[in-house]
Structure formats: C-alpha cells, structure tokens
Amino acid sequence: MTVNRNELLKALDNIYGKKGMSSRDVEDLCDFILSFFGYDDYVLDNVLSPSERDVFYNLEESGILSTHREEISIIKGKTWRINQWYIDSEKIKKIANERDDNKKEENIYDSIFRNMQQ
After folding, report:
1. pTM beyond cutoff 0.90
2. Domains contained in the chain, number
3. Domain of life of the organism in this record (predicted)?
4. Per-residue CA distances from 118 to 29, 53, 64, 114, 115 (Å)
C-alpha cells in the first residue's frame, strides 16, 4: 500500500503541527520522508547520515516508521546485519483521517452551542 503526499502531510500535521511545528516545517519534513520512500516502502539504514537517522528515530516514536533487522551468515561464518526502515502506510492513513473526524465533532458541538445561544 502506498502513501501519497497529501496523506503524509495530514498525518505529520496531526502529529507535529499539534506540538507547535510550523506548517512550512511540516511540509519540509514530508518532502524529506518522501525523498527516501517515494517509490518503495523501505530504506536501508546504511544510506542514512547520522542526522537523517535521528529524524527516522523520531518518526519511529510517532509510529510512522519501524525498523527491521535481518542477519545473514556469509563466508567464513561471519554475520552480515541488514537494518531497514519501513514506512507504515496504514498508520499514516489512520493518523491523517483523525483530523477530519475531530473537525466534524467540533463543528457538530459548535453548531449545537450556537443554536442554544439563539
């Protein structure tokens, strides 16, 4: 399942926008993520710089990304570890839709209170 930019942007806004991140910074973060996951649902950890990896760890805490480690035995009994980051498109879609649900509830209650005041 793939994630489009609008869904990811809404999800990031729901997570980081509520914590005070500006909309421009949320957009930059969205583009940053898509620069890695634009065509696939995983990224090898060894292509990341230390600062990029820090961002990925933060995104893992929010549930957008997850890690997976695979160990493969190679010649002479040595172990080769492959660390990968996966984007959770289902979680992103769920978080993106939370905002719409909250807005609908707020609008319902706002209209009820407006009607009571009249």
Report:
1. no
2. 1
3. Archaea
4. 44, 55, 44, 7, 5
